[in-house]
């Protein structure tokens, strides 16, 4: 996997099908519609998350996960797994111009399911609702650009990392700001319960700014574009993709809090699903399909 600086530069140059976020639940081609489950999850109010790739972890799963995954596939062959995701977190999940939910997360999930022979229904409910759905048993797993952190590992079991990310800071393209100190006495925006939000809050007192939180990335970006906030903090591949698609922001030359994304299940639960995910991810990396999926959305 590319180092985090290479990922950021590649994200800014991303070339992909752009789209707007949708709220309807969409099901993988191997399963029936997950609308009812998505409605259940959407009704829940929640605490959230966000996430990156580590080749060492994938290589370990290749050695240890294949045999277990075959057993897991046999055991779970009749089960339809409920997997929850965010509504819009480009380029990881978003609705394209054809009304299809696509992105790195969703393409990887589909390929892993096909490789391991399991069936799932996708709940497109938003990040916080996805996490709550998993915590309440309405979903078996969450794939939503979710960072693997020590705090989350106390509550959830994660797959091997599948993407390396980190927090970036964006300002208006016309802004003269070059450092966090330029935000003193002003307001910055962040998405609730994300690594970007946690990082912004961790330096707010040091640099003298306040943090306002939003439920979606789109609302966060709009607050900066409208001039209410002077900057926003978000995973830099996500912001880089949006900027490459024409959003009138620019990234500061500051990359923070490098982290890995993983697929989450509740701690001690759905071990057979996690085994299949790890084995499938390792197989995709070995075959080159993983690189092809990443390259669809982030190009060198």
TrEMBL record:
<feature type="domain" description="Ionotropic glutamate receptor C-terminal">
    <location>
        <begin position="80"/>
        <end position="300"/>
    </location>
</feature>
<dbReference type="GO" id="GO:0016020">
    <property type="term" value="C:membrane"/>
</dbReference>
<dbReference type="InterPro" id="IPR001638">
    <property type="entry name" value="Solute-binding_3/MltF_N"/>
</dbReference>
<dbReference type="Pfam" id="PF00497">
    <property type="entry name" value="SBP_bac_3"/>
</dbReference>
<protein>
    <submittedName>
        <fullName>Transporter substrate-binding domain-containing protein</fullName>
    </submittedName>
</protein>
<feature type="region of interest" description="Disordered">
    <location>
        <begin position="20"/>
        <end position="75"/>
    </location>
</feature>
<dbReference type="GO" id="GO:0015276">
    <property type="term" value="F:ligand-gated monoatomic ion channel activity"/>
</dbReference>
<feature type="domain" description="Solute-binding protein family 3/N-terminal">
    <location>
        <begin position="80"/>
        <end position="300"/>
    </location>
</feature>
<keyword id="KW-0732">Signal</keyword>
<feature type="compositionally biased region" description="Low complexity">
    <location>
        <begin position="20"/>
        <end position="64"/>
    </location>
</feature>
<feature type="signal peptide">
    <location>
        <begin position="1"/>
        <end position="25"/>
    </location>
</feature>
<dbReference type="InterPro" id="IPR001320">
    <property type="entry name" value="Iontro_rcpt_C"/>
</dbReference>
């Amino acid at each position: 996997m590319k180092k985090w600086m290479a990922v950021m530069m590649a994200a800014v140059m991303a070339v992909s099908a752009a789209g707007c976020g949708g709220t309807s639940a969409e099901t993988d081609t191997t399963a029936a519609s997950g609308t009812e489950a998505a409605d259940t999850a959407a009704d829940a109010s929640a605490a959230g998350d966000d996430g990156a790739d580590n080749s060492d972890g994938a290589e370990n799963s290749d050695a240890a996960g294949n045999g277990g995954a075959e057993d897991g596939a046999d055991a779970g062959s009749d089960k339809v797994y409920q997997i929850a995701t965010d509504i819009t977190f480009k380029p990881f999940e978003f609705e394209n111009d054809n009304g299809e939910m696509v992105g790195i997360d969703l393409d990887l999930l589909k390929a892993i399911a096909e490789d391991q022979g399991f069936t799932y229904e996708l709940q497109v409910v938003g990040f916080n609702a996805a996490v709550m759905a998993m915590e309440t048993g309405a979903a078996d797993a969450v794939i939503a650009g979710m960072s693997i952190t020590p705090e989350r590992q106390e509550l959830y079991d994660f797959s091997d990392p599948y993407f390396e990310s980190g927090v970036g800071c964006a300002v208006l393209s016309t802004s003269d700001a070059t450092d966090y100190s330029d935000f003193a006495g002003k307001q910055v925006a962040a998405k609730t319960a994300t690594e970007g939000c946690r990082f912004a809050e961790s330096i707010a007192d040091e640099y003298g700014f306040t943090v306002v939180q939003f439920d979606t990335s789109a609302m966060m970006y709009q607050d900066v574009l409208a001039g209410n906030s002077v900057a926003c903090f978000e995973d830099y591949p996500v912001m880089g993709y949006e900027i490459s698609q024409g959003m009138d922001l620019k990234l500061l030359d500051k990359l923070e809090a490098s982290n890995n994304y993983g697929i989450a299940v509740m701690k001690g639960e759905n071990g057979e699903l996690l085994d299949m995910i790890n084995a499938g991810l390792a197989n995709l990396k070995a075959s080159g399909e993983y690189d092809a999926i990443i390259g669809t959305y982030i190009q060198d």
